[in-house]
Design goal:
Elements lengths: L2 H6 L2 H14 L12 H22 L1 H6 L2 H14 L10 H11 L11 H16 L9 E2 L9 E3 L3 E6 L20 E7 L5 E6 L1 H12 L5 H12 L4 H17 L3 E5 L5
Antiparallel strand pairs: 1-6, 2-6, 3-4, 4-5
Length: 263
C-alpha cells in the first residue's frame, strides 16, 4: 500500500488492511497496533490452517512428495502473495493451479511434471464437486455406435499429458517426460466415483474427432483415422475402433448415440 493511499484511507480500512496483510505474511507485515499477539495468533493459525488443509486434501499426491518444510513454504507463499479471484473455498484448488503455473518460481525440490500432476489432481476434485448432471434425454443407450453419432458424458474429460500423472507418487517420480504421451479419460460414474481410463493415442484421436464434430458417426471418424494412418487393412482399424467405442460406453464415458427425431 503506497503512503498517499494510506493517508487517504479511513482509519478503520487502514486497520483492516494491516490486519489482513499481517495474517497473510506475518514475517513481512507488522502486527497492527492495539491487537494482542495471543489473539492475533489465533487468526494467523486458523486462516492458514484452513487454506493449507484444503490444498492438502485437494492435492494429496503433491503433499506426499514434498517434505513438511518445503510444502509449508510453498503454501505460505501462495497464501501470502497470490491474489485470488474467487471467494469460494471449492475454487481454491484452481487458484493454486494458477499460482503454480504463473507465479511460483521453480524450486530444486520440485518433481518433474509438477504442474501436470497438480492439474490431474485438480481435475479429480473438479469432477467430484461438479454439479453437472447426466441426462439421457435424446440419447439412445442401445444405438449403433458405428452408424449413429456417439454422445459423450459431460462428466468425462479426455486429457493428454507429457508425464504419466496417473502413476506418479513419492516412489515413482520420472526425471524426464517419456517419449510417449499419456492419454487419459477422467470421468465420474453413476455412483459419483471419479475414475480414469488409460487410453492409447488412436482412441484419444477417435474421441477428439467425435467431440469436434457431433454430426459424425463412429464409422466416419474410424475411416478418417484409417486414412490418416494409411493402414493397409482398414477392417482391422474398424474393428479396433468399434472395440474402443464399446469400451468407452461400458465405462459410461459414451452414453449412447444421438436419438433420431422419430424416436
Amino acid at each position: 500500500m503506497t503512503d498517499h493511499k494510506a493517508m487517504d484511507m479511513p482509519a478503520f480500512k487502514k486497520h483492516q488492511y494491516e490486519f489482513t496483510a499481517h495474517i497473510r505474511d506475518p514475517k513481512k507485515n507488522a502486527m497492527p497496533d492495539g491487537v494482542e499477539d495471543r489473539r492475533m495468533n489465533i487468526y494467523r493459525e486458523l486462516l492458514y490452517n484452513n487454506i493449507e488443509g484444503f490444498i492438502s486434501s485437494g492435492f494429496p499426491i503433491l503433499r506426499e512428495i514434498y517434505t513438511d518444510e518445503n510444502w509449508h513454504n510453498m503454501v505460505r507463499d501462495f497464501f501470502a502473495n497470490h491474489q485470488s479471484h474467487t471467494p469460494y473455498f471449492l475454487e481454491i484448488s484452481q487458484e493454486f493451479i494458477d499460482y503454480l503455473q504463473n507465479e511460483r518460481e521453480p524450486h530444486t525440490d520440485d518433481p518433474a511434471g509438477l504442474i501436470e500432476l497438480a492439474h490431474y489432481e485438480w481435475v479429480e476434485l473438479a469432477l467430484y464437486v461438479s454439479d453437472e448432471t447426466i441426462s439421457m434425454q435424446g440419447i439412445d443407450a442401445n444405438g449403433n455406435l458405428l452408424t449413429q453419432c456417439p454422445v459423450f458424458s459431460p462428466l468425462a474429460w479426455p486429457l493428454a499429458y507429457q508425464y504419466p500423472v496417473h502413476t506418479m507418487g513419492p516412489d515413482n517420480l520420472p526425471n524426464e517426460a517419456p517419449a510417449q504421451e499419456t492419454y487419459l479419460v477422467v470421468y465420474r460414474n453413476r455412483n459419483d466415483q471419479v475414475q480414469f481410463l488409460d487410453i492409447n493415442p488412436v482412441t484419444a484421436r477417435l474421441i477428439s474427432l467425435l467431440q469436434e464434430d457431433e454430426t459424425a458417426t463412429g464409422l466416419d471418424v474410424i475411416e478418417l483415422i484409417s486414412k490418416e494412418m494409411n493402414h493397409p487393412n482398414p477392417d482391422v482399424v474398424k474393428q479396433g475402433g468399434l472395440s474402443a467405442l464399446q469400451e468407452l460406453q461400458q465405462y459410461g464415458i459414451i452414453l449412447g448415440t444421438r436419438a433420431s427425431k422419430s424416436d
